[in-house]
Amino acid sequence: MGGAELDGLPGWVTLLRAPNPGPMTLDGTNSWVLRAPGEAFAFMIDPGPLDEGHLRAIAEHAPFRAILITHGHHDHVEGASRLSAMLGGTPVLAADAEHGAPLEPQIESDGLRIRVLDTPGHTLDSVCFLVESGNARAMFTGDTILGRGSTVVAAPDGDLGAYLASLELINAYRDVPMLPGHGPAQPDVAAMAQFYLDHRRERLAQVEAAVRSGADTPEKVVDLVYPDIDPAVRFAAIFSAKAQLDYLSHKNRESGTRADGLDRL
Length: 265
Ligand SMILES: [Zn+2]
Known about the structure:
Blueprint: E1 13-17, E2 30-34, E3 42-45, H1 52-59, E4 64-68, H2 74-77, H3 80-86, E5 92-93, E6 106-109, E7 112-118, E8 127-133, E9 136-142, H4 160-170, E10 178-180, H5 189-212, H6 218-225, H7 234-255
Parallel strand pairs: 3-4, 4-5, 9-10
Antiparallel strand pairs: 1-2, 2-3, 6-7, 7-8, 8-9
Helix pairs in contact: 4-5, 5-6, 6-7
Bound molecules: zinc ion (ZN).
The site of zinc ion has 8 residues, from helix 2.
């Protein structure tokens, strides 16, 4: 699914992939090192899981001005305090105070301009980093948009209405390369956002149809909409169906109409 993969990464970006592959993490978590040409200090995005070998590989790229967090899921943030300690106290910055010191909306330092875009949906604390080095730009999307497949927007942490608004926001960044939290880099983040929007709307239409035909629990919706789902990710699909049903029931309540059956969910 998705666009053509990006050939090669921008010269100022290094990918270190954590050894935690799985149905929810694809090939593993992408940890990113960003160092502008000629600069001593780099930034790094998402240390990933608490894996000593992976964190040591990241530490070889020190010094870092800061460790940035896209969102608080453990496969992105679990190794952050250990990495910070290995580096002698490099600050960890995150949207959620549980995971680090506050992120300013813009960071200009060490040849990079980093804009923090609030993109809630996958989680309430999800952000994307739009980074400029000279004339080059790239967007680091965390789990808001993955390099392959579709991301999970699962109740109660996720919010589908917020997620669709975040995708609309990202959709404005035409031809900006996308460097995701999992999966391969992609050449155009806006094209990926559009692809995700189309996919979500299609799924929502299917869920509405499932509800009309009597599916009155997230489990029954999953059985109708995703009949061939991999058992390893069925639990995620059920949480995702719950988020879709929540979204549809709010939307219908606001518009004063209600699909049959939604009031029972
Ligand atoms: Zn993740």
